[in-house]
Amino acid sequence: xxxxxxxKDRFSSSEIHNHAFSKILRSFNTNYQEIxxxxxxxxxxxxLIDGDVxxxxxxxYIYHESLVLPGLMSCSCSPTKVFLCxxxxxxxxxxxxxxxxxxSVIKCDIDQEAIQMYMEELPEWHQGSFFDPRVTLxxxxxxxxxxxxxxxxxxxxxxxxxxxxNGGPSQMLYSKEFFSICKSKLNPNGFLVxxxxxxxxxxxxxxxxxxxxxxxxxxxVRSYAVYVPSFDxxxxxxxxxxxxxxxxxxxxxxxxxxxxxxxxxxxxxxxIAHQHIFSLGKDLREKLNSSGSxxxxxxxxxxxxxSDL
Amino acid sequence: xxxxxxxKDRFSSSEIHNHAFSKILRSFNTNYQEIxxxxxxxxxxxxLIDGDVxxxxxxxYIYHESLVLPGLMSCSCSPTKVFLCxxxxxxxxxxxxxxxxxxSVIKCDIDQEAIQMYMEELPEWHQGSFFDPRVTLxxxxxxxxxxxxxxxxxxxxxxxxxxxxNGGPSQMLYSKEFFSICKSKLNPNGFLVxxxxxxxxxxxxxxxxxxxxxxxxxxxVRSYAVYVPSFDxxxxxxxxxxxxxxxxxxxxxxxxxxxxxxxxxxxxxxxIAHQHIFSLGKDLREKLNSSGSxxxxxxxxxxxxxSDL
Amino acid sequence: xxxxxxxKDRFSSSEIHNHAFSKILRSFNTNYQEIxxxxxxxxxxxxLIDGDVxxxxxxxYIYHESLVLPGLMSCSCSPTKVFLCxxxxxxxxxxxxxxxxxxSVIKCDIDQEAIQMYMEELPEWHQGSFFDPRVTLxxxxxxxxxxxxxxxxxxxxxxxxxxxxNGGPSQMLYSKEFFSICKSKLNPNGFLVxxxxxxxxxxxxxxxxxxxxxxxxxxxVRSYAVYVPSFDxxxxxxxxxxxxxxxxxxxxxxxxxxxxxxxxxxxxxxxIAHQHIFSLGKDLREKLNSSGSxxxxxxxxxxxxxSDL
Amino acid sequence: xxxxxxxKDRFSSSEIHNHAFSKILRSFNTNYQEIxxxxxxxxxxxxLIDGDVxxxxxxxYIYHESLVLPGLMSCSCSPTKVFLCxxxxxxxxxxxxxxxxxxSVIKCDIDQEAIQMYMEELPEWHQGSFFDPRVTLxxxxxxxxxxxxxxxxxxxxxxxxxxxxNGGPSQMLYSKEFFSICKSKLNPNGFLVxxxxxxxxxxxxxxxxxxxxxxxxxxxVRSYAVYVPSFDxxxxxxxxxxxxxxxxxxxxxxxxxxxxxxxxxxxxxxxIAHQHIFSLGKDLREKLNSSGSxxxxxxxxxxxxxSDL
Lengths: 309, 309, 309, 309
What we know:
The structure is a homotetramer. By secondary structure, the first copy, chain A, is of the alpha/beta class. The first copy, chain A, has helices at residues 60-74, 91-96, 112-121, 123-126, 142-148, 176-184, 205-215, 251-261, 271-278, 282-290, and strands spanning 5-12, 15-29, 34-40, 44-49, 52-56, 81-86, 104-108, 135-138, 154-160, 186-198, 220-228, 233-241. The radius of gyration of chain A is 18 Å and the shape is globular. The mean pLDDT of chain A is 94.
C-alpha cells in the first residue's frame, strides 16, 4: 500500500497538511477548473478542485448534512421548491431530496464535464440523486439562471460553491448583488444557505465578510460551523432568511421536525448536533461581530489560489 | 522570516501536518521526555513534548479554559480545594486560580526540569500562577502523591497529562485503578476532569476507553470536545462525578455562574461555548457508545510514540 | 499546473526528497511489484517501482548509457551475443542495440505485465528496441534462463535490476553463485556489468558488497558511478571480466572505439565521461576497499523497502 | 532522537529535499544574512545561510578540498601569497594553509558576527586556522579590499561566497568588472578559483554565466564539479588563469605535486579525484558551451532567494 504519493493541502505558506494517497482515480482539466479524484489512505476517495479538498468519502456526510438540513428544519413550512447553485458531487442534492415535501429542485452547476465525472465516479456521494424525477440539472452560470427565473420563487436556495478565487467561476456568487437576487427569488418563508469558507479563530475573514454582506440584505443571518476531519479544520456556513431562525428551536423540537420532514437515516445531524453547530465559541463570535467587509460585484472577495500560497 | 524549518506533526503514517517555525527557543531532554519550544510562524510559541504539540501561544486559551472551567461551573458549590495532576505549562493552574472560592491547589508534575523551563519561557501561559500563595508545587508521580493525601479530600481533580505512550510517565494515570483513587479523594460534590485525547470521528479509540473506564467508577461521566487550531483537530475531555452534571444547565445559567464564581476575562468559554463543547455530533456519540475498552493497570492503553508513526 | 501532488523519495528516516508531479499516467500492481508512472514537473515521466525511482525521461540517458556503453568499449572484440537480465523499460536494450557487431540479445525480465506497459507508455525509452529483429524477449526468472543456456556463451551479460529488497524478485541475482553462473556463460573476451546501487560516501554498503562478491569470481572488477539528477545522488555500476579492463584506455582511445563500434548519437558518454565515471574520489575508494561482505544465496543482501524506511 | 524537526532545502517549486535534524545549535540574524546551525541527523552539524546549505560536518571536506587544492597543484610555482574572499567557516582557509610555501593569506569576509560564531561553533571546520600567524582576517566588502591592495599581487585568489541573490552581500563578486580586478591583482603565475554554483544537467545557468564571464577576462578558464551528498547535487567551481591549466597534468603528476606542496592528510582529493572533477559529461560540456550570459555590474546574475522558491 504505497505511502510515497502525497497530496499537500496548503493552508498558508507556513501550514501544509500532507495526505498520503494510493491512486489518482481521475485527473483532468475542464474549462473551469483542474480536477483530481484521489484515493487517500486516511479518508478514501477525495475530490480536489484546484488543489482544494472538496469532500472525502469518509466524512462528506458531515459537510453535506450540515449544509442542507439545518435550513430545512428552520422554516415554518417544509420546502417544496429548491434552487441549488453548484453542489457538484451530488451529495448536496442527495440531502435536499430527503425533504418529504419537496416537489422540485433545480441544480445549476457551470461545469458539465465535472458533473459527468461525478456521476460516474462518485456513486457513494450522489446515490442516484442526479436522476431523481424531482431534479432538473442545468449547466450554466447559476447566478444568470437564477435571475432568469422570472415567475418562480423558491423556498430554499443553497450555494455549494468553490471558494471565490480570483477569476474563478464562483467569484460573483458571494456578493451583495447576488444575495439580493436570491432574496428576490425567495418566498417569505424561504431561506438561503451558503457554504461559508474556513471558519476558525485563525481564519475567519472570508466568512465574516459573507455574514456581513448577507446582513445588508436579510434581517436574519446566522453563522454556523462544523469540524470536518479531512479538511483538518472547522468549516463555516451562512444561513439567511426573512423570518426563519435556526436558533429558535431546542434539540427536541429539531428531532421532532427531522422525523416529520426528512426521510432516510441521518449520520451526523440531529437535535444535539444542531445545537452544537450553531453555538460558536466566544472568541469567534466576537471576531465575527467586528470583522469582515461588504462584498460587492465591484469589490469581490478574492482568496489566493492554493497553488500560489 | 525563515520558511525552511518545519515541524512535522505526525497523526499517522498517512497524515502529516507541517508547521513552519523560525526558531527553537529551547530544546532539551529531561529524565522523562524530550522537549522543544519552537516559535511557529502560524501559532507563535509552540511547546512540543516527544514530538506532540502540547499547546501554542495563539490558542492555548481554548484548550485550557475548556479543560478547567466547565467543571468549576457544574458542581453545586464552587470548589475550595483542587488537585492538579500534571498541567506543566501553568495555564491550567492559571484557569483554576480564577475560582473565587479557591483556597488551595496542589499541582503535582513529575518533571521539575520541564517546569523550571516553563516558568522562565512561558509567562504568557502561567501569568505568574506558579507563584500564587494558594498554590503548592510538588514534583513527583502524581498518582503516588494523590494516594498519600491521607486525610485530605478535594472538590476537583484535574489531569492535564501527556498521552499514555508506552513506558511514558503518564501511562498509569488513565486506568480504572487510578480513577478509583481519584474518586476516593473527592468530596461528594466533587468532580474529576481528564484531558481526553484526540476526539474526532476518525480517531476516538483512546477517548472512548477513558470514558468507558470512568463509567466503571463514576455514576456521571460526560465527553466533551473543542477544536484547537494548532492541533488541527478537535480535542476531547472527560468529566466524571458523583452528582454534578454539566448537561444540567442552559447557557444563561452558565453565564450567571461564571459571573459569580470566576474572576478575570474569559476568551473562549461562556454559556454558548458550554453548550457547544458538550453537544457532539450524532456519529461520534454513537461511536463512543459502542467503542472503547476498560483501561486497567495491567492492560494500559498505549499510543504509539509520534516518532514511531 | 498542479503543485499539490508529490512523490516522496525516502532515502532514510531522516532524508526525504520531494518531487512534485502533475499526473499519474499509470498505476498498477503486477505479480511482482507496485508500479507507478508519474509525470513529474522537474523530470517529466518518472517510473516508480515499489516507491523507488527507476528512471526519468529527462535524464534516463545518463543512467542507461553509463550502464551499457563502457563495457562495450572495454573488451578487445566488439560483442555479438548479449544477455540482459531485467532492463524493464527497454532503454538498456536500446543502448545495447547501438553495438554494430551485435547479432543477438536475449532480454529476460520476470514481469511481463510491466513490460507490456513500458512498450505502450515509454516509447522515448525503448524507441522500438523491443521489436528489433536481433532481440528475443523472454519473461521468466533471468537466473534460471541463464542457467538453461546450455550450449550458449555470451560476450556480455548485463543486469539491470531493482534493488534486492527482501523477498523481491531480484534478490537472488546479486550473489556469488549467480555471478559464477554468469562467468560460466561468458566468452573469455566477455564481461558482466551490473547496476550497482547507490554509491556515495554516505551510502556504499550494498555496492561494496557487490564488488567484494564479484572479486570472488572474476579477476578484474571495477566500480564506477555517475550522478543522475532525478535520483538526487550518484549511482554505482559494477564491471567484471576475465581480461577486459575499462581502465586500460585513455579518452582518445574510447572516442575512437565509440566511432567504430557504436551507431547513433550519444548524449552523455564519450572519452572524457569515461574517465569521469571510472575515477572515484579518494574517500570512496578507501571505503570500498575496506567494506562490504560476500553475498551468497544463503546470506543475501536485503535492503529495506522504501515503504519501511 | 527527534524525527519531527525538518529542514526543507528548496531547489525549486517542484523539488524539495527534507533533512531531519535534532537541534538548532545557533540561530541569528546578522546585518547581512539569516544564519542557522542545525544538527542534522544524516550529516551532523549543517550550516544554513538564508535557507541554503553552506556545508555539513560529514562532507565539508569534499567541497573545501575541491575548491582549494586543484588550483594549488596547477600553477608552476607553489603559491606564497593568497587572497580569500568570503570563506566564512574557516575550512577554505584550513585547506589553503596546507600549502607549504604559503607566507601570507588575507581572508576577507563581510560578516564579522557570523565569523565570530564559526570560530566558536565550527572547530571541526577551521581547526584553528583563523588563528594561524600567516592569516590576516579582515571584515569588510572583499571587492573593495582587493581593489585597495595597491602594491600587492597574489598567487591565488579564491572566492568562497554565498550565491548571488538579489541585494545579497555577494552579488557584486561575480561580475566581469570584479574578475578584472582579480586579474589585475594576480601574478602571471597566479590563478583565481570561484565557487561556481549548482552544476548539473538540469541546473547550470549560473555556472555557465560565471564561466562565460571569466572567459572575457582570462585566457584559461576551466569548469569542474564534485558531488556533495549533503547538497544532494554536484556543485561547480570555476578556475581561471593567465597560464596555469589544471588539465595539463595526469593523475601521477598531481600525486607528486600533492606530496611536494601540501601538508597533512587529504580525504577526498588526489590524482584520480583530480581527473574525476575536471571531466564533465558530454551533455554538460555541450550545455556550458552554448549557454550563459556575461555578468556585469550593471547586469548582475540574481538567483531567487530560497524563501521565494
